[in-house]
């Protein structure tokens, strides 16, 4: 497992029970955006899941955390799978699924690292039930791509897990001139959190190149979210500009 992945696993295990309070405003705003843009993601998410044969709609929520993406989209899918490095976050995710009244078959998370090599003895992977990684209709990574060491490799992995015509969605930060100076605000003892970040956001051109490189450039779109995302870190409040990008398997 890469150093960046291990830093993220350790950090999010520590903050699993407090993360939803500190990032509460951001989480609620993200949920609103995903709900509002269901049809933009794919028309198949516009309505409640159909019970008709052949109408299955599977969603993968990667780096799922406590379930921000799944809380928004699971009601409109037949099955939602969460994957994360942090066991603490997975516990919060599965608690949320239970509170929403969903069975394990409907919405459940597992510890798994899609970037771990098969020979990596330190990989963070649990034993997944059979067909857990069967092809998905939609794969989403919400506010987590900036924590990934190799975004291009991850998107290529997503492509492998999508059905023909499947959709990949990324929500993350725009690298703007007014991005918060987190290092200038936090105490030296608090700067360990910066070791969880691989990149300070992605421009439209960078995302287009990532999607095209992964052969998911069809229907590419990049939308800057008008309302800034707000979050709290060590008692300090910050605001960042977010975006949503989507592309389909070519």
UniProtKB/TrEMBL annotation:
InterPro entries according to UniProt: SAM-dependent_MTases_sf (IPR029063)
One GO MF term attached to the UniProt entry: methyltransferase activity
Keyword Transferase: yes
Identification of the protein by name: S-adenosyl-L-methionine-dependent methyltransferase
Record keywords: Methyltransferase, Transferase
Keyword Methyltransferase: yes
GO terms of biological process kind: methylation
């Amino acid at each position: 497992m890469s150093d960046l992945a291990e830093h993220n696993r350790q950090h999010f295990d520590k903050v699993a029970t407090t993360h939803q309070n500190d990032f509460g405003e951001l989480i609620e705003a993200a949920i609103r955006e995903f709900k509002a843009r269901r049809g933009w993601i794919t028309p198949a998410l516009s309505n409640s899941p159909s019970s008709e044969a052949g109408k299955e709609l599977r969603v993968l929520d990667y780096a799922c955390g406590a379930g921000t993406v799944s809380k928004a989209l699971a009601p409109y899918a037949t099955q939602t799978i969460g994957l994360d490095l942090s066991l603490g976050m997975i516990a919060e995710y599965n608690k949320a699924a239970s509170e929403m009244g969903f069975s394990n078959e409907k919405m459940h998370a597992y510890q798994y690292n899609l970037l771990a090599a098969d020979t990596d003895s330190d990989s963070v992977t649990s034993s997944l039930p059979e067909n857990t990684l069967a092809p998905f209709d939609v794969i989403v990574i919400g506010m987590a791509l900036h924590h990934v060491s190799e975004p291009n490799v991850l998107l290529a992995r997503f492509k492998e897990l999508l059905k023909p015509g499947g959709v990949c969605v990324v929500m993350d930060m725009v690298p703007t001139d007014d991005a918060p100076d987190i290092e200038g605000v936090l105490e030296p003892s608090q700067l360990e959190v910066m070791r969880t970040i691989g990149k300070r956001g992605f421009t439209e051109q960078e995302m287009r190149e990532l999607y095209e490189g992964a052969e998911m450039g069809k229907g590419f779109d990049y939308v800057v979210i008008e309302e800034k995302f707000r979050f709290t870190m060590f008692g300090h409040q910050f605001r960042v500009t977010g975006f949503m990008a989507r592309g389909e398997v070519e």
